[in-house]
Amino acid sequence: SQQGEEDPQALSIQEGENATMNCSYKTSINNLQWYRQNSGRGLVHLILIRSNEREKHSGRLRVTLDTSKKSSSLLITASRAADTASYFCATDGNDMRFGAGTRLTVKP
Amino acid sequence: DTAVSQTPKYLVTQMGNDKSIKCEQNLGHDTMYWYKQDSKKFLKIMFSYNNKELIINETVPNRFSPKSPDKAHLNLHINSLELGDSAVYFCASSQRQGVRNEKLFFGSGTQLSVL
What we know:
The complex is a heterodimer. In chain A, strands 2, 4, 5, 9, 10 and 11 form a 6-stranded mixed β-sheet that branches. A 5-stranded antiparallel β-sheet of chain A has the order 1-3-8-7-6, with no helix packed on it. Chain A has strands at residues 5-7, 10-14, 19-24, 31-37, 43-50, 55-58, 61-66, 71-76, 85-91, 97-98, 102-107. Chain A has no helices and 11 strands. Chain A is globular. The model of chain A has no long low-confidence stretch (mean pLDDT 90). By secondary structure, chain B is mainly β. Chain B has strands spanning 4-7, 10-13, 19-25, 31-37, 43-50, 53-57, 64-70, 73-78, 87-94, 105-106, 110-114. The termini of chain B are far apart. The model of chain B has no long low-confidence stretch (mean pLDDT 90). Chains A and B meet through strand 4, strand 5, strand 9 and strand 10 of A and strand 5, strand 9 and strand 10 of B.
């Protein structure tokens, strides 16, 4: 199994701006998932994109997947202070694995 | 109603002690996991149990012993605690092992500090 690696490690933006985080992985996947972790809490599932999908939306979240480049991106539009958290990607398999996440700070 | 609950939330102990962290899920899931998150936020899988059967046992010191009395519970016992064991430990569950498109449900974590 493999893990996702998020980039950048940290991102700081102003409220209202868009935030883009990237994830790279190394081998073929069936799906890729994004999770959010608020400070001092567990991870919460945000969105799943299957390998045959290129883009998926959920509210202010937009996820893209490029299997040829083995990469995914998570876009949060019109960010809010409440979006401040760490964001992780994880690839599928019997043992879902995560990277170190992108720490997003949205300043009011 | 908390879906995945783990206790305690904080655990401060001395080197050499033995401690346990408990985890329970009320989602009816078949698979449970333990993850370790280090100070750099890197989240690493430790163990996976499917219906009380050990599926994954990563390269974890044998001082760590998971115990699953039933599929709703997965406890983590740690013997002879070392400074390097300090981390946040997360329990998680998913509906079925090895099924595509399964998402994980996480507990809120146990912050272990070994002094």
